[in-house]
Design goal:
The chain is of the alpha/beta class. The protein folds into two domains: about 35 residues, no CATH class; about 130 residues, Nucleotidyltransferase, domain 5 (2-Layer Sandwich). About 35% of the residues lie in helices and about 25% in strands. Strand 5 and strand 6 form a beta hairpin. The chain starts with a strand and ends with a helix.
Length: about 180
Amino acid sequence: MNPRRSGSGLARDCCGGDRWHAHSHPSASPPAPPAVLQPLPPGTVLAFDFGPRRIGVAVGESLTGSSRPLATIEADDNARRFAAIGRLIDEWQPVLLVVGLPCHPDGAEHDMSARCRRFANQLHGRFRLPVARVDERYSTCEARARDHDGNARRAGIDAVAAQIILQSHFDATPRR
């Protein structure tokens, strides 16, 4: 990830994390080291690939680190979208939700980044579950590339992208 620089000596990456650049302010002291990623709580995790027309959903198990595409929500209005998400949450009883956060290849914010952050905040506010935001660069491209025999089209490219987002979160986060 190539974070953008700011004048404070800190750079904000596309997922909202601060990174220290000593060469930005040689006389300033670095901030405290970033918190270590907390181990994933044991249980089911739902992941979302948010889009203006569709939301891909994947499900996984944090103990095994396995994931699979689950569904694609196609609804025009937020009430129907969140109703469908609520049904999935009731069915799967997740311990964590994961939302993909799109970034440009250089790590800069994407046009959809703010909308995805808002969606993540809405999930947390409505369902009172922890929500992790994950860099989703290239997840849809990778989902399309995996579609050699048309399976991703049947499962929904967006659901496969959500699986890629969830799997990257599992791969980057320690398990208990």
